[in-house]
Amino acid sequence: MSDHNPRKLESLFEKNRHWAKEVVANDPDFFVRLVAQQNPEYLWIGCSDSRVPANQIVDLQPGEVFVHRNVANMVVHTDLNCMTVLQYAVEVLRVKHVIVVGHYGCGGIRAAYEHTDNGLINKWLRNVKDVLYQSQARINALANENDRLNLLCELNVIAQVANVCHTSIAQNAWRRGQPLTVHGWVYSLEDGLLKDLDCSVDSVEQIPEVYRLVPPSE
Predict the structure, then answer these.
(1) Is 165 an active-site residue?
(2) What are the distances in angstroms from CA 62 to CA 41, 53, 59?
(3) Inter-CA distances, 144 with 15, 108, 149, 187, Å
(4) Which member of 33, 51, 126, 138 is catalytic?
(5) Where does 41-206 sit in CATH, by number?
(6) Catalytic choice (68, 69, 97, 103)
(7) Torsion angle of alpha carbons 154, 160, 161, 163, nearest 10°?
(8) How far apart, in whole angstroms, are the C-alpha atoms of residue 218 and residue 89?
(9) DSSP secondary structure, 39-96, as one string
(10) What is the 3-state secondary structure (H, E, C) of 5-50?
C-alpha cells in the first residue's frame, strides 16, 4: 500500500468541478430540477463499452434516460441485476420505451464469434453463442468476416429485444394497458449514427404464443 497516492485521480475531481460550474452557469436551476425527480421516458440497455455513452449518443440530459449496461447488451432472464432494472424502469418509473442498443465492433460479439477460451466471460457470452448457433448458416453465408460480425451484432440485439418481451415485466405492463414499446438499435463507432433494426414490439400479440404468459387466475 506504500505506493498508494490519493491524488492520482484528482484530475477527475477537477473535471467534475469544472463540469458542475459550467452546467450551473448555463442553467442555474439544473441541479434543483434534477434532485426533485427522476422521470425518464426511456430505458437504455446497452453495452459496457466505454465508447458507447447512452446520454451523449442521443443528446439527452441526466434524468432523461435510465441506463443498464453489460457486456454485449444482454437481457438474460437469470440476471437479477438486469431484471431489477427492467422492473423498476417499467413499474416504478413507467418508461414508455425500452431500447436495446448494440454496437458494431463489439468486443463481446467478437469473443463469442471466435473459439478462444477467455475465462469467466465465456459463461456470459454463451448467450451470444446461442444466437450464433441458431443463425450460423445465414452468418457463414457472408464472405467478409466484418460483415459476419456486424450481422451477429444485429441478430443479438433482436434476440435481446425478444428476451425483454418474454418477461412477465413487459407482458404485465401490456396487460395493464401501459404504453410500452421495446426497440432494437445498433450504434456505429465509425460515424456516430444509430440504426433502427425495425424489430419494435408494443403488444403481447406480437410475440410467439409459446412465450405469452397467462396470469394464474386465467
Answers:
(1) no
(2) 12, 12, 10
(3) 42, 19, 9, 20
(4) 51
(5) 3.40.1050.10
(6) 103
(7) 150
(8) 26
(9) --SEEEEEE--TT--HHHHTT--TTSEEEEEETT----TT-HHHHHHHHIIIIIS--S
(10) CCCCCHHHHHHHHHHHHHHHHHCCCHHHHHHHCCCCCEEEEEECCC
**Is 82 labeled as catalytic in the residue annotation?**
no
Do the beta carbons of residue 99 and residue 79 sit within 8 Å? Answer: no
Q: How confident is the model at residue 5 (pLDDT cuts 50, 70, 90)?
A: low
pLDDT grade for 115, boundaries at 50, 70 and 90: confident
Determine the distance from the C-alpha atom of residue 81 to the mean position of all C-alpha atoms in its chain, rounded to a whole number: 13
Whether 173 has a pLDDT exceeding 90, the answer reads yes
156 three-class SS: helix
103 annotated active-site: yes
